[in-house]
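Retro notes - structure team

What went well: the batch runner handled both jobs without manual restarts.
What didn't: labels got mixed up in the shared folder, which is why I'm recording both outputs here explicitly, each with its sequence directly above its tokens.

Job 1
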Amino acid sequence: MKLFQKVIQILQKPFPEESRSIYYRNLIFLSVFVTLFLYIFQPFGISTLTSKKFLICLGFGSMTFLGACIYEAFLHYTFKHRKLQEKWTFGKWILDNLCIMIIISLTNFLFARLLIIGHIDWSLFPQMIYSTFTIGILPLIIIGGWSLLKNEKKYQNIANEINHSKNAISKSNEVENHSVFEIPTYQIRYIEALQNYTKIGFINSQGSLEVKTERSTLKRIITETEGTSIIKCHRSYLVNKDAIISTKGNAQGLLLSLSDCDKIIPVSRTRVSYFRNN
């Protein structure tokens, strides 16, 4: 039971959102791995071929690259699917890649049956799926686990560095009568974007956290709060830097804890340098 709970905890860990360059870099690595694995070990009947073994192995590697590109194009562009960083976990990353491997199985199956054998027998497609998973599961685990551990360690170290630095987040000298929607800036803890609305978390006159929703964009509020302690920390969040009491790290970046506020505010990777250097 403890092992099962441990596995669930690992699968629920936040996973770093991949940029296009990282996605295709990993895809190239996988394609090269497939080519070399097939050529060196020659499984699945490749050893029985009399000629053009390397070209055939290279063909399977190329189909691996093509299949993943097709998956990316249709799912993430045609259907406008997006991986929301706040909800993107290691388990979802694995599931996403298993779906990619099914598409890769299809492209490799068509390549093998049409260009090598000359006809299609769909009853053999499950065998191709099995073969693809057999080859691809190891680099999948290596790539995902390495990325998770590397980013977790990186941002945990940065968070520790910030927490141990007395002047990590400088206090502003703003005038206390500056306000946003009649809420004094010094009372604001965070501002969250919700399409054309924003949620403002602030400490009310009774000293407790209150959330107020206003029709406004984050871009507009950024302009209005320029020069104050309200700063952008994420594409969906502004935070009062004077209210930050501690910083933690996970594979996606930094997480901010605020005074008198239970909500944890994320810091996107592009904004980490600000909190590290100011």
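Job 2
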Amino acid sequence: MITILCIDDEADIRELIVEELADAGFATLEAANGREGLELLLAKWPDIVICDITMPEMDGHQLIATIQLNHPELSNIPFIFLTAMTDKENMLAGLRAGAADYLTKPIDLDILMAKISGCVTRLENDRLAGRAF
């Protein structure tokens, strides 16, 4: 079963996403900030991460940088930024930092689920090809 970690400091958004994911048959994990998210990443190794950028304690950019620098074994986990930051510069910064995708709020659940479906297909293909990460 695919496990997805949702990291967002806005509880209502996080709960909405987690409910949608669970209804679609995914196992879910939740964190309210990047620091909690990093702890769950290290402990549970989810298959996909959905992450807000602007959060207390550790923001999304700091989280992905920490993973890339200190935990390269986790750097192949698909990371989808979901944020209210809609300008092109922030989008490019997120993608350049290593995010697999970048979606803006307000959330469109159909688009999010399509992006997740693409990540799942790539994960399954990698596993079938013996490239499990």
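One thing worth noting from job 2: The beta strands are 3-7, 27-31, 48-51, 79-83, 101-104.
We'll revisit the folder naming next retro.
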